[in-house]
Amino acid sequence: MYRILVDTLVKIFNEDAYINNTISNVINNNKFTPYEKKIFTKVVYGVVENKLLLDYYLQPYTKGKRVKPFMRNVLRVGAYVITFLNTANHFIVKELVDVFKKVDFNGSKFVNGVLRNYERTPIRSLNGLKGNEYLSIKYSVPVEIVEYLRNDYKDIEELLKNLCTNSETNTYRINSILVKQEELLKELDNNNINYNLIDDVIFTKESLIDSKYFKEGLIIPQDYSSTIPARYLDPKPNDIVLDACSAPGSKTIQLAGMMDNKGSITALDLYEHKIKLINDNANKFGVSIINTKVADSSKVSFDIMFDKILCDVPCSGLGVIGHKPDLKYRMTKEKIIEISLLSYSILDNISKYLKQGGKLVYSTCTITKIENELQIEKFLKNHPDFEKGKMELILPNNENQQDGFFICELIKK
Known about the structure:
Distance between the termini: 59 Å
Number of strands: 11
Oligomer: single chain
């Protein structure tokens, strides 16, 4: 398993693979025991979440050495397990050294020496670090992103703490198209599954991905915050709705449920494979009113007008790095600015196709002002025929198990 684990980290860090898809693919293609699956997932997420911190801890042992990606990730795994997990360290070190021997026998001696010394030596202190560098290392967020967020928020450390904490709670929205809420909850009670309920979202420590509830389409994995944009839009049966940035389709399916699967939803995405994912999910979850279209939402045109539009635009994703920790290493100030320009162009174009008196909901899963509040200010300045309705910024909160999200209603006068 440890070879697979290290190979997975190489894909994420060095081949630009996304953590959630990569973990899912590896688990599906290997015959892990339930325990191995749990350990594999925990270690991959743990190493990715703490990459900068682990590299800081390891730096005194690797200083002056040319460390290639495979070796670096072997050392990261060792440092993570020794530092954060209650395991037999000598066993883990031996397993990792054996993995590396098959790649580089001579190099395995260096790996063994580093991990044995790391195991015996007190953890390197962060006391010598100050300001943004301290926060960057402690929370494993690139210093450029720390600096950028500091411009928007005063209590930057509390924000980073909540941003980077991965809740152990699983959240699933009940699919009202296929099951009544009271019927599903009764079945969960009968099967002794502990949960909390807010609106139509189940919070549970148990993973239900392998359960019949998910396999039969009765529940949909979805964070509570990501269900709020659809609630703001509040579509009714027989409405004509546009979902401008639909993939993978969770919000689209939620809209269909709110419409009692009556009316029509046009769902757009730029890529054919993502449109296929939307269609597959619609079929699985019993939705028949979604019409998908491959299109660039910043340029697409329509011959019809829509009652309601959901504009859940591309964003930096900084509000969801608690469970998508790889995203924080992909972002730079320049990328955030570039994404904000794209998102505005989508909003600007799509707004043309809203009926008079109709509602458009703009949403992101990020917390930067340039992607959120400043976009709305710019839009309203350029579109006097619109007015702002409700607006909400949700900051990540591990206690409430919520991602960071921004939602704003725009009403066409």
